[in-house]
Amino acid sequence: MTKFRPLLVVLAVIVIVASAAGCGVVSDQTKQEAKKKIEAKGKQAKQEAKKKVEAKGKQAEQAAKKKVEAKGQQVEQKVKKKVEAGQKDLEKKVDDLKKKVETGQKDLKKKVGGVQKDVNDLQEKVDEMLKKLDAQDQQNQ
Q: Which residues of the chain have pLDDT under 70?
């Protein structure tokens, strides 16, 4: 509504000048002056309207830019949270695998120790049997 007020003023002046011109009361010089004033006011109103439109456009552009930046930050934060969650999940999986490997190594060491003991026991028995065989060979000679 504020954009149309200057235009209404200009229109009112034109109507007044036209009616005065129609009556023949106003001289040609006065008509010329009135015409120039009307044109000047029209030009001024047009410039003011143009400035207001440009200001509104800049304001809308800035608001849109802020919204885009805010959305970008939100997306960035969501992605960051997902990445952090993924990293934590991977770290947990790695820790679980490390524990499994350690447990497996301990079990393997126990088994190797058991097999080594069995080998040592068998070696002792073989040594005893060889001694007995040697003793029998010597008796037989």
A: 1-4, 6-12, 17-26
Q: 60 in a domain, yes or no?
A: yes
The token duo for 4 is: 């149309």
Question: How many separate domains does the chain show?
Answer: 1
Is this model's pTM higher than 0.70 or not? no
In the numeric block, which tokens belong to residue 40? 């000047």
Residue 136: CA atoms inside 13 Å, Cβ hemisphere, count?
A: 6
Q: What is the largest CA-CA distance in the chain?
A: 169
Residue type, 43: K
- Would you give the DSSP letter of residue 141? -
What pLDDT is recorded for position 139?
86
Contacts of 45 (CB under 8 A, 6+ apart): 6, 7, 9, 10
Cβ burial of 31 (10 Å; 0-12, 13-18, 19+) is: middle
For residue 133, is it within any domain? no
Distance of alpha carbon 141 from alpha carbon 119, whole angstroms:
33
